Amino acid sequence: MEDQFIKAAGLIGDATRAAIMWTLLDGRAFTATELSIAVNTSPQNISMHLGKLLEANLLSVEKQGRHKYYRFSNKEVAYVVEAMANLIPKPEISSKTKSENYAPVKYCRTCYDHLAGKIGVALADSLLEQKIIIEKNNTFEISPEGQKWFSGFGINIEEARKQKRIFLKPCLDWSERRYHIAGSVGTLLLNKMLEQDWIRRTTNSRAIIITGKGEKEMLKSFKIVV
Amino acid sequence: MEDQFIKAAGLIGDATRAAIMWTLLDGRAFTATELSIAVNTSPQNISMHLGKLLEANLLSVEKQGRHKYYRFSNKEVAYVVEAMANLIPKPEISSKTKSENYAPVKYCRTCYDHLAGKIGVALADSLLEQKIIIEKNNTFEISPEGQKWFSGFGINIEEARKQKRIFLKPCLDWSERRYHIAGSVGTLLLNKMLEQDWIRRTTNSRAIIITGKGEKEMLKSFKIVV
DNA sequence: ATCATAGTTAAATCTGTATTGAAGTATTAC
DNA sequence: GTAATACTTCAATACAGATTTAACTATGAT
């Protein structure tokens, strides 16, 4: 068991491969060439590294014509990379500076079963600003008006409160370093959006895409420009 | 940000350092010499590697006389190592003991020689709730009724008290972040459970599996649903 | 005071493996 | 068909950094 652990650590530990993992963390699938550009090395070299990661089952690949799309092969792998990302000392967030060069997917991925990524954070901001939820010493609470809002959105808050799992809690996303909404309310929000086809899950990835409808509705309900 | 990620990955990625991390995963603090033995390399080499891990704040050290005790510097580090441990292909689990969120390492692992992981924490909770043990300014004590309970369980508390090692102490588990029971009482509990075939050790792993009998008994004695 | 143990530091060496260069196959475009 | 793109394979090379050799400091035991 130990040697397998060491092998896994070594695989991720190489600088080029770590850069690959970092790139893939946004949930998208990348082609070998894209990765070689992102990581700034030769295609041959990328090919070799991808081979090793595939062999170890850290990545999986899907062939489409002459392209090969690589992604994390399972969520456990993503967790390792995320856990590592969390080791990084947190920078202060200069909110709008980096929003330009956002990769489409770092953009709106699901953090387990709630919305994280840029959209998740923007959503939390919006709900806070509209006083639908209120921050109170590091927890979130739902205001009386908020309760109305949620039921208008088709979410029964009383129902959510009954569930055993944590009701509503701020969840710090590694990629955004800002709070978004987890807990049963987070899940309900996510599900409602899926149900209404504002967003769609992609297969084999934690990334989520926003539909045309979602784009309009998010602007309307949350003043979020996606 | 990316370069810091790569640096962190590289630090854990070296075989010797990975072995150090693996060793430290059980939660104990180790001296440099102990680590050099566990990892099978020279003291000089260990010293060099520990220096790097310290420098990067992945480990912290405490000096005691001529010994230096190394441990993970924070839970984030432990999470990375645990997440990596979870990458390792799981040994097959008998259907009886399978439970939904089975993760070999987190689930029910031994922390040195007592029960940690999910079960260990639940157990401590149960014993506290039943007032078998009592928390008193960050230590655990056994109540008079508790003493009876333990002897009913086949554990002689007076015997345990005589041992030189720490009798009973709360131990913070990395994976659960809640206290469980260490000390000689913790060991006795663990051994008793093994003896009664409530749980079984797996070869080559810290994980422990719960037997069908254990499942029933734990529910009965501790109201723990496994 | 002396010796053993614990750990560190510095320079010399060694080695695994990442990278590169050259040549190959497969697919799409024209 | 030919050319271009996407990716792989193999042998040759380069090099970071792990390990070793050796000499050192600090603490504890007798």
Task: Please tell me about this protein's structure.
The structure is a homodimer of 226-residue chains. Chain A contains ten helices and eleven strands. Chain A is of the alpha+beta class and 226 residues long. Chain A folds into two domains: 84 residues, Arc Repressor Mutant, subunit A; 117 residues, no CATH class. In chain A, the strands form five sheets. Chain A has a three-stranded antiparallel sheet. In chain A, strand 10 and strand 11 form a beta hairpin. About 11% of the residues of chain A have low confidence. At the A-B interface, helix 1, helix 2 and helix 5 of A face helix 1, helix 2 and helix 5 of B. Chain A binds a DNA duplex (30 and 30 nucleotides) through helix 4.
Determine the number of helices of chain A (DSSP H or I, runs of at least 4 residues). 10
| End-to-end Cα distance of chain A | 45 Å
Number of strands of chain A: 11
**What's the helical proportion of residues of chain A?**
40-55%
Q: What's the structural domain tally of chain A? A: 2
Question: What shape does the CA trace of chain A take?
Answer: elongated
Structural class of chain A: alpha+beta
> What is the arithmetic mean of pLDDT of chain A?
72
Residue stretches of chain A low in confidence (pLDDT < 50, at least 5 long) are 91-108, 172-177
Order of strands in the sheet with most strands of chain A: 1-3-2
Q: Oligomeric form of this entry?
A: homodimer
